C-alpha cells in the first residue's frame, strides 16, 4: 500500500534526530513543541514503527529511526536541491539572481576562495553564495552542494569536471622559527625539530604516508586535524609543517625546507552536477572560480 506521508513529518523527524528532543526540533524549525510531537506521532502511526523512546536525556532514537534516517536525509537533500535549482534558474531584471552552494576544503575555503567570492558578489550582487567548508567530499549527486573544489579525480559520470592543475605540498617553517632553530639539512636533523601535523589518520593522510612513511603521527609533537590550524601554527613559528607551496608567500612569508626529500602534488578539480549546466548562475560561478583557482595554482614563484 502506498503511503501519502507529508514531507513536514520527515523534516520534523530529522530535526528530532539532530536535536534529541521535541523542544530542540521545534526551535530548529520555528514550530511549536506540540506540533513537533504531532508530526512524530503521525509519522510513527503511518509507518507502523516506534521511532523514539523517552529517556532522562531526551528522546532516544530506535533502530527503526536509525534505519530510515539516511532515506529521510536524502529527501531533505532533494528538497534543498529543488529550492536551489529553482533559485538558480530564475532571472531578475537587475541581473543574475539565485543561490549557489560551493564546497571546498578548509584551506581552499579560507585562504583562496574569499577574494573570488568577493569578486562574484561585486559583479553579481544579487547572487547568494553559500560556502561549505569540509574536508569530507560533499555529495554532488545528492546535491549537498552545487559546485565543489576537489583534490581527487571525480569518478561519477553525472558530474561535469574541469581539471585546474596540480597543487604542490611542501615542508615549510616561518622566519621566526628558523631564527631560533637552524634549518634542517637531512632527514635525521628534521626529526630533531618540532613538527606540526595531523592527529587522526584519514584516507588522504594514508595516501601521503605511502610516499613518506617516515612522517607518521608519532613524529608530530604539535597535532591538529584542522588544516587551517596547522597552517597558522606554522606561520606563528610553532614548528615545521606541510602546506601548499602557493600559501608560503602570504600573509606570513614561509621558507620551504628540504624539497628534494618532501614534495607531493594534489590534482585539483572543479566539479558540478551535469543537471546544472544550463543554470546561468551556477555556470557563471563555476567559470569565475575555475579561472581564479587556475591563477592561484599557476602563481608559484611569480
TrEMBL record:
Q: Which Pfam family name is an example for this entry?
A: HTH_1
Query: What InterPro entries does the database record attribute to this sequence?
Result: LysR-type_TF_proteobact-type, LysR_HTH_N, LysR_subst-bd, WH-like_DNA-bd_sf, WH_DNA-bd_sf
Instruction: Tell me the GO BP annotations in alphabetical order.
Output: DNA-templated transcription
The HTH lysR-type domain extends over 5-62
Q: Which GO terms describe its molecular function?
A: DNA-binding transcription factor activity; sequence-specific DNA binding
Q: Which SUPFAM superfamilies does this UniProt record tie to the protein?
A: Periplasmic binding protein-like II, Winged helix' DNA-binding domain
The UniProt keyword set, sorted, is: DNA-binding, Transcription, Transcription regulation
The record's similarity note reads:
Belongs to the LysR transcriptional regulatory family.
Recorded protein name is: LysR family transcriptional regulator
Amino acid at each position: 500500500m502506498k503511503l501519502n506521508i507529508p514531507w513536514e513529518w520527515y523534516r520534523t523527524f530529522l530535526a528530532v534526530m539532530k536535536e534529541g528532543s521535541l523542544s530542540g526540533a521545534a526551535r530548529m524549525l520555528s514550530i511549536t513543541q506540540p506540533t513537533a510531537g504531532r508530526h512524530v506521532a503521525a509519522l510513527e502511526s503511518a509507518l507502523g514503527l516506534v521511532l523514539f523512546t523517552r529517556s532522562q536525556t531526551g528522546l532516544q532514537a530506535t533502530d527503526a529511526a536509525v534505519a530510515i534516517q539516511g532515506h529521510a536525509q536524502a529527501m531533505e537533500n532533494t528538497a534543498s536541491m529543488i529550492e536551489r535549482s529553482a533559485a538558480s534558474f530564475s532571472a531578475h531584471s537587475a541581473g543574475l539572481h539565485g543561490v549557489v552552494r560551493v564546497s571546498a576544503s578548509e584551506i581552499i575555503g579560507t585562504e583562496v576562495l574569499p577574494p573570488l567570492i568577493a569578486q562574484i558578489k561585486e559583479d553579481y550582487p544579487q547572487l547568494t553564495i553559500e560556502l561549505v567548508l569540509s574536508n569530507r567530499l560533499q555529495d554532488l549527486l545528492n546535491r549537498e552542494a552545487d559546485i565543489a573544489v576537489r583534490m581527487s579525480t571525480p569518478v561519477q559520470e553525472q558530474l561535469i569536471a574541469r581539471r585546474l592543475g596540480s597543487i604542490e605540498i611542501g615542508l615549510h617553517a616561518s622566519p621566526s622559527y628558523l631564527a631560533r632553530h637552524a634549518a634542517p639539512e637531512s632527514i635525521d636533523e628534521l626529526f630533531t625539530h618540532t613538527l606540526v601535523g595531523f592527529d587522526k589518520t584519514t584516507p588522504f593522510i594514508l595516501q601521503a604516508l605511502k610516499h613518506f612513511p617516515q612522517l607518521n603521527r608519532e613524529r608530530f609533537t604539535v597535532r591538529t586535524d584542522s588544516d587551517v590550524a596547522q597552517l597558522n601554527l606554522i606561520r606563528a613559528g610553532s614548528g615545521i609543517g606541510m602546506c601548499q607551496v602557493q600559501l608560503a608567500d602570504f600573509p606570513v612569508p614561509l621558507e620551504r625546507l628540504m624539497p628534494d626529500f618532501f614534495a607531493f602534488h594534489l590534482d585539483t578539480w572543479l566539479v558540478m552536477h551535469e543537471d546544472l549546466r544550463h543554470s546561468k548562475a551556477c555556470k557563471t560561478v563555476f567559470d569565475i572560480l575555475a579561472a581564479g583557482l587556475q591563477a592561484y595554482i599557476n602563481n608559484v614563484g611569480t
